Amino acid sequence: MKRRGVFTLIEVVVALGILTLSLAGLLQILAASQNRLARAYEKWRETHILMQAAEYYLLQPGEDPGGIPYTYFPYADYEALCYYRDAENLPEEYVNIPNQLPLRTCVIELVRLRDRKTVETILVDRISYETTLEGE
């Protein structure tokens, strides 16, 4: 006598095994995507902090802006550093032009304090108004 609509024990075990493997794969994918999301958020946050520091430093006169006050940079776990250097990789026809102010590169670095690692850097070329032209 055959029974219809009833599963054997081996069919149920195989189905549960397939379901277990599927759920394990799904959980692994979810964990990986959650890690990627956390890394993307941290990268966005660091970029936002760097842009905030760059805005402050680029609005300051001169090439020695000092530190950023806490009211403008309220991030205790990061530090923003700013310094100037000569512009690099300029075409030869733009170097040492008479009666032209020099081009300097403003380097702004975001340093994570817990490991003192530079996590982001931005370079902005600016005309140096601190240098006087010859004959002035």
Q: Over the alpha carbons, how many angstroms does the gyration radius reach?
A: 29 Å
Q: Let me know the largest β-sheet.
A: 3 strands, antiparallel
Number of helices: 1
Number of strands: 3
Series of H and E elements: HEEE
Instruction: Output mean pLDDT.
Output: 88
Residue share in β-strands = 15-25%
Q: How many structural domains are formed by the residues?
A: 1
What overall geometry do the principal axes of the alpha carbons give?
Answer: elongated
Q: In terms of structural class, how would the helical and strand content be classed?
A: alpha+beta
Distance between the termini: 112 Å
Give, in spatial order, the strands making up the sheet with the most strands: 1-2-3
Low-confidence region ranges: none
Q: Helix proportion of residues, in percent?
A: 25-40%
